[in-house]
Automatic annotation (TrEMBL):
Transmembrane segments: none annotated. PANTHER family: IMIDAZOLONEPROPIONASE (PTHR22642), PROTEIN LONG AFTER FAR-RED 3 (PTHR22642:SF2). Residues 51-539 form the Amidohydrolase domain. This is Amidohydrolase. The lineage of its organism: Bacteria, Bacillati, Bacillota, Clostridia, Peptostreptococcales. It comes from Lentihominibacter hominis. GO terms for molecular function: hydrolase activity, acting on carbon-nitrogen (but not peptide) bonds. It comes from the Bacteria.
Length: 541
């Protein structure tokens, strides 16, 4: 067995606990056939082997984005993309500019305004009516769990004072004094009541954007994506876009997904059936479906996360979609069907449902079911050890780990008790990192998240506030594991990707510097030199 390529020298960090560093890696086709010292590699080489001298560069397993929405992103990024740091006046100015530049559009859509720009009542429709009163306008907030609509949007969707909220207190429309929708649309089932009535997307543009986003991922060193789903009301568009980009060969990452979210506990059985059917078509190491994704609460920014204390601004209390008993039943159904389970849980009450689900699954003997708590933002201190006990994967996003005083008014003391990753890791939990793209806010680049996991402050801003508790930082090594082997484990693919080991796929990222040997504050500046997926270069600087 002779190698097509041999990578030598540099800093080859394998993320394999048995052999963390290597002098040489040999590749034949799309598989790794040797990892070890330079002398041992000679047996795998002949005169046709291409020798790649890494010099002083660093080679790692390819990064895996463990929580993203690449199909959804291609839809919601197709028009206006807000900057998270824009003021309200800047948002309105950019909306006005876009409308003036696109008079031919029959509707306007966008993503990304900072949800903390508004009070607990959320954005108001009148601000948009002043810009465009005669065409529907619908903009998702930075977390994707709330939206801002104008009067025409509600009119065309048939949302009036007589329209009941789909799930009062969690999926709802903010109302004015007369009971009419005021402009603030909270959570997916409310959004669905508008987006199933108004078509905001162009299919060809969506496929092109998905391919472009994939190429951008490759430039960031990403070779795998865990797709955490699409709104159920766009299921048809989801498959159309995925099939088109798959057949074109323009998707440059491995794709493991869940099709659509569960946002209605009465639809668990239907979603499981849909996943089993999808798995018949998507079940190889390039495209696979195996997650049941449950959206159990909202976000703190939109005041829809299920936390154990009333929100300071108005004393409101939010309950999760599924209580502990309901979550346990749903999780057991998924485990029995051979699926892995991923539950969105921002607040500590929602996280308790994840724990109850995991306990039921483990006690039933489904030890190999991968259970992920998406985001793991605020977990009650007494619940943290249970993540290790029940083998719950703690998913999170590094670029969210920064001090944000603007959230003090929304959360009070809770604002400085979030993302306890150090404690979760010490409890025995695996930390899996992702971007939540397209609601990543400060970039989906893994290197930025790795840095912010290890510093708990905004990259590129030396004087930025640290997210307390400051001692909840991770090591850089742990953050690398969070973007490689732990995400591979979450995707049920740790036997073939996630580390540089013989028999695994040749998925690598080559960096210009050894990020384990520089100050963590510099990691975001390190350039990606090359990305290899399945033995093929997908990006080269």
């Amino acid at each position: 067995m002779k190698a097509d390529k041999l990578y030598v020298n540099g800093y080859i960090f394998t993320v394999d606990k048995e052999q963390e560093w290597a002098e040489a890696v040999a590749v034949q086709g799309n598989k790794i056939i040797y990892v070890g010292d330079r002398a041992g590699a000679d047996a795998f080489c002949d005169d046709k082997t291409e020798i790649r001298d890494l010099g002083t560069k660093m080679m790692l397993p390819g990064f895996i984005d463990g929580h993203c929405h690449p199909v959804m992103a291609a839809h919601v990024l197709s028009q206006i993309v807000f900057d998270i740091d824009w003021t309200l006046d800047e948002c309105l100015m950019q909306i006005k500019r876009y409308v003036e530049e696109h008079p031919e559009s029959s509707s306007y859509f966008g993503l990304g305004y900072a949800e903390w720009l508004f009070d607990e009542k959320g954005p108001r429709k009148e601000l948009l009516d002043n810009i465009c009163p005669d065409k529907p306008m619908f903009f998702l907030g930075s977390g994707g769990h709330e939206a801002w609509a104008n009067s025409k949007c509600f009119e065309e969707a048939g949302i009036t004072s007589d329209t009941p909220d789909p799930l009062p207190g969690l999926h709802y429309f903010s109302r004015d004094e007369e009971g009419n929708p005021a402009g603030h649309v909270v959570e997916g089932r409310s959004q669905a009541m508008i987006m199933t009535k108004i078509d905001f997307f162009d299919a060809e543009s969506v496929v092109n954007i998905m391919a472009e986003n994939s190429a951008d991922y490759a430039s960031m060193g990403v070779t795998g994506t865990a797709d955490m789903g699409m709104y159920a009301y766009l299921e048809k568009q989801y498959y159309e876009a995925l099939d088109a980009v798959r057949s074109s060969g323009r998707y440059l990452q491995r794709f493991v997904g869940c099709t659509c979210h569960v946002e209605d506990q009465n639809l668990v059985d239907l979603r499981i059936e849909a996943l089993i059917k999808a798995r018949e078509k998507y079940n190889d190491d390039r495209f696979r479906m195996n997650f049941l994704k449950i959206i159990n609460d909202g976000t703190m920014e939109s005041r829809s996360a299920a936390i154990s204390e009333p929100y300071p601004e108005d004393g409101s209390v939010v309950k999760p979609l599924m209580n502990e008993e309901q979550a346990a039943k749903a999780g057991l159904k998924a485990a029995k069907a051979g699926l892995d389970v991923n539950m969105h849980a921002i607040g500590d009450v929602a996280a308790k449902s994840v724990i109850a689900m995991a306990k039921a699954i483990r006690q039933a003997g489904y030890d190999d079911c991968r259970i992920t708590c998406s985001h793991s933002q605020y977990i009650a201190p007494e619940d943290i050890p249970l993540f290790g006990k029940y083998n719950i994967i703690a998913n999170s996003t590094g670029v969210w780990m920064y001090g944000n005083p603007l959230m003090d008014k929304v959360l009070g003391h809770i604002n400085n008790e979030t993302f306890r990753m150090r404690s979760l890791i010490d409890s025995g939990a695996k930390m899996a990192l992702g971007s939540d793209f397209p609601v990543d806010e400060y970039g989906r680049e893994p290197l930025r998240s790795i840095q912010m996991c290890a510093t708990r402050k905004m990259y590129g801003q030396p004087d930025a506030p640290v997210l307390e508790p400051a001692d909840e930082v991770t090591t850089v090594r742990e953050a690398i594991e969070g973007f490689t082997i732990n995400n591979a484990y979450q995707m049920h693919m740790e036997d073939v990707i996630g580390s540089i080991e013989v028999g695994k796929y040749a998925d690598f990222v080559i960096l210009e510097e050894n990020i384990l040997d520089i100050p963590p504050e510099r990691i975001y500046e390190v350039k990606v030199c090359e990305t290899i997926m399945d033995g093929v270069t997908t990006y080269s600087a």
